[in-house]
Amino acid sequence: MRRVVAKLRSGASAVGMVALVAVTAPSAAAGAGPGAGVASCAVQTCISVEGQGRLVYRVSASATPGGEFFGHFRMYGEKLNGESALRHWRYGQPYTVALGRSVPDRTVFCAEGWEHVEGKKPQLRGRACVQVRG
What we know:
Mean pLDDT: 81
Number of strands: 9
Oligomer: single chain
Distance between the termini: 22 Å
Shape: elongated
Low-confidence stretches: 1-32
Strand content: over 45%
Helix content: under 10%
Order of helices and strands: HEEEEEEEEE
């Protein structure tokens, strides 16, 4: 178990160098598929969940293709409450949180992209959610 946790942590720390998740455009059923391995996008923000069934390895937020912005991501859901660093986010550069645990059936995870513009309040650049079914 310690090896799995260590590998998940090392994978999450390499986020800035390697894209861990390939994000696809949402379908009509995005976020409603069975088990982990679902993805969804809204405006300039995508979320994806990697795992098998209700076992979630990691949750990632990223910008959509062509939807880059300067700001941060916020992710939340079942015992997940994370906020990324403030930086320039481009497609293929996810903010990833390693979970490595099972979640209850129909758990919902969401990601929000927030753009920061000098002299203005942060603006929401999309809220995407997925539901994990077991």
